[in-house]
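User: I'm preparing a small set of examples for a lab meeting where we compare how different chains pack in three dimensions. I only have the primary sequence for this one, and I'd like the structure in token form so I can line it up with the others. Please keep the answer compact; I'll paste it straight into my notes.
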Amino acid sequence: MIAPRTRLEFPLHQLDWAVVDAWAVSIEFVVVERSGNKRMYKKAELLGRHIYVELDHAVGQLLLQAWIRIAWWYRVATLFSLPEEINIDQEGLPKLFLIWADRLNNSRVEQTQLRARTAVNRLLAMFRQPAI
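Assistant: Understood. Below is the structure token output for the 132-residue chain.
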């Protein structure tokens, strides 16, 4: 079973939200939640797949979570071969059915996973952290 979210935690004494917001705008993420030291960004990928990145900064630590959310109707269309959430750092998705539509959709989700990983790696580089 694939872990639903990618979680990274590392020391970061000061976080400049303006820099993070500039990163989000540059790759077409929008803020969907903002409260205190926590922000959640979302990017609508192709139909039925959305990339989420959540940052939570507290007492010298930054918790970064990233995942792809699969819409319920997309899951129905693929005969529930895809979970509701998929992490971005693990290669290979479950292939439960051997029908062509499932293979095609898994390939598209893997492409979304690669784009999400690339976006998060750009953010990690700004924090001088190793890429996923």
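A couple of notes for your slides: Residues 4 and 86 are 5 Å apart (CA to CA). Residues 6-126 form a domain with the TATA-Binding Protein fold (CATH 3.30.310).

User: Perfect, thanks.
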